[in-house]
Amino acid sequence: MTTLAQLRKTALSLPETAEQAIRFGMVAFTVRDKRFASIGKDNHVQLHLPAEEADEVLAAHPTAERLTRGSTPIGVRVPLGHINGQQLNHWVRRAWLARAPKRLAEQVTAGDAAVPGEAGDLPKAIGRPATQALISAGRATLSQVAELTEAELLAMHGVGPKAVRTLSEALSATGRRLKA
């Protein structure tokens, strides 16, 4: 069963995302003050999606409802327990991409195509998921990685202990280290 914890982890793994507690026990996730996902006490997740993508969610989930502001469609509303974790991750990311500023969305999209060993001076040994996560976060060089703490790296979806160890070793070889 998909949980608020998974929604929170997915949303907060995206750059410049903030979490806000708003009225009536609702939790919202925003990028530059634009809401892209939220969940209320009723455990329904609301995703702000373009019409085509909202139609895909509605077709895939019989319990999903169109989310509107007045008569204007703005996304979908679906019970959190009726959407599996993989689907949730996908649709939260799509909602984020739809609401993020163009430059930021392009940066994240560029991360999707990043190839280990071909992105900046990041070591190939960190693997594809870590390379893509770092590029998506705008960290294409070891100098930029050195500005992060180990905890910040581990909080990135796709960066695990092995990648952190590899990055630490690469930084050490150049006389640098992760931020304390």
Protein architecture, described:
This protein has 180 residues and is α+β, with helices and mostly antiparallel strands. It has two domains: 97 residues, Aspartate Aminotransferase, domain 1; 66 residues, Orthogonal Bundle (DNA polymerase, domain 1). 43% of the residues lie in helices and 20% in strands. The protein contains eight helices and six strands, in the order αββββαββαααααα. Strands 1-2-3-4-6-5 form a six-stranded antiparallel β-sheet. Strand 5 and strand 6 form a beta hairpin. The longest helix has 15 residues. The chain is elongated, with a radius of gyration of 18 Å.
Features:
180 residues; alpha+beta; Aspartate Aminotransferase, domain 1; DNA polymerase, domain 1; six-stranded antiparallel sheet; 43% helix; elongated
CATH architectural group of the largest domain: Alpha-Beta Complex
- Tell me the series of helices and strands, N- to C-terminal: HEEEEHEEHHHHHH
Highest-level CATH class of the largest domain: Alpha Beta
Radius of gyration: 18 Å
Number of strands: 6
CATH-assigned fold name of the largest domain: Aspartate Aminotransferase, domain 1
Range of helix content: 40-55%
* Biggest β-sheet description: 6 strands, antiparallel
- Structural class call reads alpha+beta
Residue stretches low in confidence (pLDDT < 50, at least 5 long) are none
Q: Kindly state the mean pLDDT as a whole number?
A: 93
- Number of helices, where a helix is a run of at least 4 consecutive DSSP H or I residues: 8
> What fraction of residues sit in β-strands?
15-25%
> CA-to-CA gap between the ends?
37 Å
Shape: elongated
Counting structural domains, the number is 2
Trace the largest sheet across and list its strands.
1-2-3-4-6-5
Protein name: Helix-hairpin-helix domain-containing protein
Organism: Nonomuraea africana
